[in-house]
Amino acid sequence: MNLFGEELKSWIFSIAGAIFLALIIRTFIVELYVVDGPSMRPTLQHEERLVVNKFIYRVRDPQRGEIIIFRYPRDPSRDFIKRVIAVGGDTIEIKDGRVYVNDEIIREDYILDKTRTEYPKVTVPEGTLFVCGDNRDNSLDSRSADVGFLPLENVKGKAMLIFWPVDEFKTLP
Question: I want to staple 135 with a disulfide (CB 3.0 to 4.6 A). Which of 41, 78, 125, 154 is the partner?
Fold first, then answer.
């Protein structure tokens, strides 16, 4: 009985430790995410699985070009995935199908079609981001009042790699 009790105690302790460690990792370091919808095509496809680095933005702010996961401002229970186009203090303008950041056209090799919508020249407020989907004409993003300038506190993490399906395994820029 004593040997069985010690073995059971050891198993319970090990399982509780593993659960605790998993919760710490998921809360503060990495999380798995499933892409839902076509807004990031062609970079990301519907139902691809990603590893999201949740730790990186504890030591620095998101940078232009990074793909981020964030809580949707109108419904924080929903997560969105978009690309950072401009950061606080940048000017942003979309005209003639091109995106200008700080009065310079940005190179966007990751989109298939020019942006059909226009966006007037504005300065991104400090503490916020301007984000867009790579599939610009099928994306709810900062061009919409529903998202607008994204507060940094809504950012959950940076998409680091695609791990599923296996044949699409790759790191993200």
Answer: 41
